[in-house]
């Protein structure tokens, strides 16, 4: 999630655990702990693929954070002023303020390496977008009440309860969306195909499903307010014929570990050379995928891994195009007609089949 949300979550958890004993101090310490795991973003790994796939790694590990929280609790108890509070309470304070950060991150699309250093793919069960005001606002309001009144517990407690209730709502909505998808997937014989279901930007009323089928990937939008309108399925190519070439490099293998099958491959002309580029289809929205990485260049009739991978700029869309896309998303949330077609925002070379309604 975004930094503001993580600060608010850490402060709220801190207030709930020790707000009665520490007052406003519990909020300030909790806020610092809540943002601590994201300091790994300051580490320069010297390579774009390494930087994006190592983020939310060791600093988000439940093992590491539980150990750090335990150490902080033991050290705090050595302070004379802290001995009036039981060790168990300090342990809950530090550990919960720290581990709630990666647990919330795991509910977004990007995923989190909760079990580092075990060689497991990032954990992700997206039910909220990386920025969702309806989750963050209750936390901020609860903290404002606590700062004004000096009661560090009640305001954050109510804020955390409302934010958690919103997550329960989002979880139930995702289950409903998956149920709505089943007839569409069955119609196209895609029941067993890898799929990713996630909310569209800033809301949990309109959801996007990405389904991988060999060289094709399909996009489907499902809205909570769609009524009986059947979801539309649009089909794109993802350049799967280039996948073996990408997997010849360590960076390509790392991206495949990170994103699974949700990658698109293409050859772009960069600096006078044909360059193999992989785009993460999970993040962003069709036509606005921000994570694309160089993997290899074609020189002297041979493909060679790049010495240093670069993250390419977002697709060449004007700010006006982005505003138009967001405006159409808002309209699509309210009603399914006229249909919002994701292919409206995608370069024609990728579109294989537009829905008839488009």
TrEMBL record:
Look up the coiled coil feature and give its residue ranges: none
Source organism, top-level taxon: Bacteria
Looking up InterPro entries in the UniProt record yields: Transcription_regulator, YdjM-like
Q: Does the keyword Electron transport apply?
A: no
GO terms, molecular function: hydrolase activity
Q: Give the record's keywords alphabetically.
A: Hydrolase, Membrane, Transmembrane, Transmembrane helix
Would you tell me the protein name for this molecule?
Metal-dependent hydrolase
Q: Which organism is it from?
A: Halomonas kalidii
